[in-house]
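Lab notebook, design round three. We kept the backbone fixed and only want residue identities now. Task for the bench partner: fill in a sequence for the structure below.
Input structure tokens:
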């Protein structure tokens, strides 16, 4: 059976293909094609997912579409689906059900409580579910405008960032603030999850009452008051038990995930790494395969490396068309040795190999790398390459089997979905990546998930004694992760990156 999932069609559109019992591909439209029109079919990601799955439009047995999916008449969207996929059954999936399916069916749990929270979707902003085997049953739901995502969005705009895009900046800014405004935000949420409407005006912005209560306050204190209040509210909504699964845009918040992991209320916590609207494309295919099709529930996918890859001939053609000088490294050993040497010389290295990651986080296939032993690595990455705020730190990638020596981090560090704590003995080494007192964004890398990147970390360890590299996403200026070699070349020459590895090809400045 071949299932096509379509999610996030009104924002962060994505497609996923599930074929013969496994996810074969999942890609966000924005990574392949700029300017997707909200409510239209994400044609580029659909086409690429089908190609990677070895399927044609005529082979698709079911198209699972996640609400909301059309700004105009939904009938036109259905007609286009029927025209493009003539042999398909059409299944419409509720937004928060797709979120719930994306988390539970990808988790290792046979039974779990599932919590989904976002800004708004199908009028809902959150839901709580009980899942067992192949079934996910709704227990409780919450409705917009009483949305924690709405509150986070309002503060994002208040601080001067872009609402709906820069909430992650508020999260990281909160690590440098104090708790003086926690009582104000607690009062806004005193009947959690209901928001006290007197703190908002008719347009949804903050009211005079809020500003009178706010007084003189730094942005970092506002961010921390919000973050800590949201953490407490979500802990109450989640309750307690054995296994907890999380999805929805609010759970891109790695500090919130760590608060749930460390609360002691749950034995095990799993968050869908592609927690936002794009991830509902995965939830759609899981819902059809497991929930409707009653196929046994197993943890899937094994990794998020679900996008396109490029062979040597495709890469070479792009480099030659761009009239670039490059070096071809004939073996993996030579490539790894060269990368370790450059990193040891405190060069910033772009690393593009294998299949592109699904979701916003770089997991070692579309990454910018630096050595923690370079005292200027964080400054160089922030100022000269990413052009972003100093409080936004970089992840530390470490082989999973060695992580415990350096960090205290939970299983969700596998996909950069939480934060860890640096061990006291290594605090000085990772000082430039520390958030607050001892938090670090930890990325644990297993040989199974990413054998090449895992090997690079070990080779770096052999050379320097430290098998850890700083890792940030290979993208610039708020663009999505690079996908194709041409994207990589454009970003390389538009930044202060010193060297670019695209497969076995090396470009240096």
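Proposed sequence:
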């Amino acid at each position: 059976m071949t299932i096509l999932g379509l999610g996030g069609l009104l924002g962060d559109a994505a497609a996923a293909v599930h074929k013969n019992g496994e996810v074969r591909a999942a890609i966000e439209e924005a990574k392949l094609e700029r300017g997707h029109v909200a409510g239209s079919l994400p044609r580029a990601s659909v086409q690429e997912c089908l190609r990677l799955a070895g399927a044609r439009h005529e082979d698709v047995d079911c198209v699972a579409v996640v609400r909301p999916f059309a700004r105009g008449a939904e009938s036109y969207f259905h007609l286009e689906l029927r025209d493009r996929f003539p042999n398909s059954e059409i299944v419409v999936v509720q937004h928060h059900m797709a979120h719930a399916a994306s988390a539970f069916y990808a988790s290792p749990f046979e039974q779990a409580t599932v919590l989904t929270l976002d800004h708004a979707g199908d009028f809902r902003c959150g839901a709580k579910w009980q899942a067992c085997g192949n079934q996910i049953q709704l227990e409780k739901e919450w409705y917009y405008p009483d949305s924690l995502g709405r509150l986070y969005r309002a503060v994002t705009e208040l601080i001067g960032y872009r609402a709906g895009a820069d909430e992650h900046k508020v999260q990281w800014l909160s690590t440098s603030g104090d708790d003086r405004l926690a009582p104000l935000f607690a009062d806004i949420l005193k009947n959690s999850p209901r928001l006290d409407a007197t703190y908002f005006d008719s347009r949804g912005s903050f009211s005079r009452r809020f500003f009178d209560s706010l007084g003189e306050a730094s942005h970092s204190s506002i961010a921390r008051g919000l973050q800590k209040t949201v953490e407490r509210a979500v802990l109450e909504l989640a309750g307690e038990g054995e296994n907890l699964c999380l999805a929805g845009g609010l759970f891109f918040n790695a500090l919130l995930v760590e608060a749930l992991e460390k609360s002691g209320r749950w034995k095990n916590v799993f968050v869908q790494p592609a927690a936002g609207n794009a991830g509902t494309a995965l939830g759609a295919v899981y819902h059809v395969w497991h929930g409707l099709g009653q196929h046994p529930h197993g943890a899937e996918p094994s990794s998020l490396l679900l996008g396109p890859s490029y062979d040597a001939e495709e890469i070479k053609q792009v480099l030659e068309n761009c009239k670039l000088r490059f070096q071809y490294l004939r073996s993996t050993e030579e490539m790894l040795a060269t990368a370790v040497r450059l990193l040891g010389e405190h060069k910033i290295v772009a690393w593009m190999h294998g299949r592109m990651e699904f979701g916003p986080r770089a997991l070692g296939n579309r990454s910018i790398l630096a050595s923690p032993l370079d005292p200027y690595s964080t400054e160089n990455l922030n100022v000269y390459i990413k052009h972003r705020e100093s409080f936004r730190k970089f992840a530390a990638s470490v082989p999973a089997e060695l992580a415990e020596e350096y960090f205290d981090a939970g299983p969700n560090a596998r996909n950069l979905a939480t934060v860890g704590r640096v061990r006291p003995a290594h605090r000085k080494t990772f000082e430039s990546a520390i958030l607050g007192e001892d938090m670090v964004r930890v990325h644990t890398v297993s040989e199974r998930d990413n054998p090449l990147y895992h090997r690079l970390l070990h080779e770096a360890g052999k050379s320097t004694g430290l098998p850890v590299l700083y890792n940030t996403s290979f993208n610039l200026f708020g663009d999505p992760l690079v996908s194709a070699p041409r994207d990589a070349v454009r970003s390389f020459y538009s930044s202060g990156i010193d060297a670019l590895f695209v497969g076995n090809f090396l470009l240096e400045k």
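Keep this in mind before ordering anything: The two ends are 48 Å apart (CA to CA).
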